């Protein structure tokens, strides 16, 4: 399987555990079942790290079962409304794992199409919120008050920033509220989407600084 050893996404995907079923009896490998059995019997179901599952699958020792995070139910939800699915609850590296699985299991590009459709269906919202948080961050620097929610129960941009960055770097504001739907979306972004959000906000900030310096 072609992948880049130095690529962080590939490295992370290699450590993810996959549900597998053994196609044959395998002697002296019982320890991977966390049982006292010495051997593994055919049809035994275990979870293996991707790197080991891939090697065994290519040698027809195991069959990889599709993880729940890529189930028909998840695909149906993404088809209905990509932004409504909390990918982080499925897998914090959903795209990276999905791409590796598609290389291993996808004969007709179906799985890659699922990933592509999810990405294109969510990227506009990520960009929009990165700009919002950038504006909120600028607003907060000139504001003397700060709240976590408004009177209608909407989360403030400060609260969202803490959710998606584990720190204040994404921007804080007072009065820049977000709906519960947007709050759920931002909380549910998987890791590469959070990186895109940070990059979008940083890009917007740099552009504002550039324009301000040329006035």
Model description:
This protein is 53% helix and 8% strand. It is built from 9 helices and 5 strands. It is elongated and about 75 Å long. It is mainly alpha-helical. The protein has helices spanning 8-15, 50-58, 72-80, 87-90, 94-105, 110-141, 157-165, 180-187, 191-213, and strands spanning 17-22, 45-49, 62-64, 155-156, 177-178. The model is unreliable at 141-157 and 165-175 (pLDDT under 50). This is DNA replication complex GINS protein PSF3.
Descriptive tags:
Methane Monooxygenase Hydroxylase, Chain G, domain 1; elongated; three-stranded antiparallel β-sheet; about 55% helix; two-stranded antiparallel ribbon; 2 domains; about 220 residues; mainly alpha; 9 helices
Topology readout:
Layout: H1 8-15, E1 17-22, E2 45-49, H2 50-58, E3 62-64, H3 72-80, H4 87-90, H5 94-105, H6 110-141, E4 155-156, H7 157-165, E5 177-178, H8 180-187, H9 191-213
Antiparallel strand pairs: 1-2, 1-3, 4-5
Helix pairs in contact: 5-6, 6-9
β-sheet strand percentage: 5-15%
Q: What Rg is obtained from the alpha carbons, in whole angstroms? A: 22 Å
What's the level 1 CATH class of the largest domain? Mainly Alpha
Anisotropy-based shape = elongated
Instruction: Give the mean pLDDT.
Output: 81
The CATH topology name of the largest domain reads Methane Monooxygenase Hydroxylase, Chain G, domain 1
The overall number of domains is 2
Number of helical elements: 9
Which percent bin holds the helix content?
Answer: 40-55%
Structural class given helices, strands, pairing? mainly alpha
Number of strands: 5
User: How would you characterize the largest beta sheet?
Assistant: 3 strands, antiparallel
Distance between the termini: 53 Å
Low-confidence segments, given as residue ranges, are 141-157, 165-175
Largest beta sheet: what is the strand line-up?
2-1-3
Helix/strand order: HEEHEHHHHEHEHH
Q: In CATH terms, what is the architecture of the largest domain?
A: Up-down Bundle
Subcellular location: Nucleus
Main location: nucleus
Keywords: DNA replication, Nucleus
Domain DNA replication complex GINS protein PSF3 N-terminal: 6-57
């Amino acid at each position: 399987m072609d992948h880049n050893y130095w690529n962080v996404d590939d490295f992370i995907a290699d450590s993810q555990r996959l549900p597998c079923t053994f196609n044959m009896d395998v002697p002296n490998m019982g320890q991977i079942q966390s049982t006292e059995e010495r051997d593994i019997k055919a049809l035994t179901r275990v979870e293996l790290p991707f790197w080991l599952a891939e090697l065994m699958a290519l040698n027809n020792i195991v069959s990889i079962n599709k993880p729940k995070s890529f189930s028909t139910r998840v695909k149906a939800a993404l088809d209905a409304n990509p932004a409504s699915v909390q990918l982080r609850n499925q897998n914090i590296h959903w795209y990276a794992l999905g791409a590796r699985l598609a290389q291993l299991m996808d004969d007709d590009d179906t799985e890659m199409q699922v990933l592509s459709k999810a990405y294109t269906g969510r990227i506009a919202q990520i960009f929009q919120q990165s700009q919002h948080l950038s504006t909120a961050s600028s607003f907060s620097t000139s504001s003397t008050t700060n709240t976590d929610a408004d009177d209608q129960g909407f989360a403030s941009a400060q609260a969202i920033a803490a959710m998606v960055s584990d720190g204040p770097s994404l921007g804080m504001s007072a009065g820049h509220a977000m709906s519960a739907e947007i709050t759920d979306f931002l909380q549910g972004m998987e890791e590469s989407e959070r990186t895109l959000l940070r990059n979008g906000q940083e890009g917007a900030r740099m552009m504002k600084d550039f324009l301000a310096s040329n006035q």
